[in-house]
Amino acid sequence: MAALGGLAAAALLLLLLLLLLAVGLYCCYVRHVHAKYDHIPGAPRESFLLGHLPIIWRMMEKQELIHDLFLQWSEKYGPVIRFNAFHRVSVMILSPEGVKEFLMSPQYPKDPLVYGRIFNMFGVRFLGNGLVTDRNYEHWHKQRKVMDPAFSRTYLIGLMETFNEKAEELMEKLEEKADGKKEFSMLTMMSRVTLDVIAKIAFGLELNALSDDRTPFPHAVTMIMKGMTEMRIPFVKYMPGKQKMIKEARESLRLLRRVGKECIDQRREAIQSGKEDTLDILTQILKGDALEETRDDENMLDNFVTFFVAGHETTANQLSFTVMALAQHPEIMERVQAEVDEVLGAKRDISYEDLGKLKYLSQVLKESLRLYPPVPGTVRWTEKENVIEGVRIPANTTVIFSTYIMGRMERYFEDPLTFNPDRFSKDAPKPYYSYFPFSLGPRSCIGQVFAQMEAKVVMAKLLQRFEFQLVPGQSFKLLDSGTLRPLDGVMCKLKPRSLPKGFQA
């Protein structure tokens, strides 16, 4: 018996020694990795192993924006900064030279750790190998080539009827609230109208999210975005307090993929029987599938989810931020309303030609994206050594680019925290690789023109019909929930404007 006890003690001691050896070797490895990056400027690490993570976790708990911390670091340490987390060191590059080098070239793939993480969400396939996440350039290029016709000028001009129709439905809902007293979240309203638009235009779905409070889609997208935020917390899926959220995020993803499958099956059947000849995103997804040797329904669903989630969330946030900025700057709102009145007059339906004449509104939307970009940045992976701003960046490094931070840096924009649409006037100097709300280069956002057409139609109608003011007491903080959104939802009150003579209500 004593011998057995002795053996158990010896085994435990051996296990302890092996554990200590493993920890020691890991610490040596961390020190070795740090040594490769210690020449790069950066804030002091709070912990040898955790690096800068404790700072990030504290900010997340307080719902503070991490990008603002990096902005402070850029002012203190320069445009190339390192960020330590365990044995990984990432490098943030806030330099036009670096943006041009990495984003304009196809040779730098998206980062495997960052984009691999959103392949699945809590065990359910999420964005998979869709256009946003696909790291294989050849495979991505095939997908992009197939999708491009659905975003061509010819097709986009044909969308004006739907943009007008859905924006009118929003105006009707806002008219019910426009007594100067009712308080409501502009973000909620914008999220619903952009959801209706992307569902109808991309997939032929009539969701009626604006009218039907029982539709599960707005909540599903909210839970998916919440899941994206929570996924950043280490071991979150094992935390008892997070189980309800995780379950809802999984169910929401399954709902989207199930609906996507039904849409794809119905459209495929219609195409095969010769009943369908529409040029929309869903048709292009199916055409791409037909060109491939092997049918890949999961990849098609990846793109369905990508367009469904990204195609409305980002535009809704941009519209809400624009309303927030205009309400804070009445002189700018007056100027843009004067332009809308001049271009549209008593017209109810906005034409494609009208959009081109709304030049100051375009500047307002661009300036909103500079200060409040819904997608704050992007991440790449470099397999070779680079030198940017005189700083050597080792091979096999994650490199981070932020349009949010660069858009708020004095070295690129004069008086950067002031909302000034004239920065984007025809005669103003163009920002040189320091403004990229839709990314840049071959991997730039395919839906950029689509999103800005939709945003213009909605904003023009809103400015034509209503005076809006913000409810006092809002924080105007930004929340990073996968995309940047206004934390308080942009609480507003509306009053109807006196409409031009001849306007048909």
UniProtKB/TrEMBL annotation:
CDD domains: CYP46A1-like
PROSITE patterns per the UniProt record, alphabetical: CYTOCHROME_P450
Descriptive protein name: Cholesterol 24-hydroxylase
Keywords noted in UniProt: Cell projection, Cholesterol metabolism, Coiled coil, Endoplasmic reticulum, Heme, Iron, Lipid metabolism, Membrane, Metal-binding, Microsome, Monooxygenase, Oxidoreductase, Signal, Steroid metabolism, Sterol metabolism, Synapse, Transmembrane, Transmembrane helix
Enzyme class (EC, first level): oxidoreductase
Recorded metabolic or biological pathway in which this protein acts: Lipid metabolism; C21-steroid hormone metabolism; Steroid metabolism; cholesterol degradation
Gene Ontology BP annotations: cholesterol catabolic process
Signal sequence, start to end: 1-24
Major subcellular location class: other
Localization (cell): Cell projection, Dendrite; Endoplasmic reticulum membrane; Microsome membrane; Postsynapse
GO molecular function: cholesterol 24-hydroxylase activity; heme binding; iron ion binding
GO cellular component, one term: presynapse
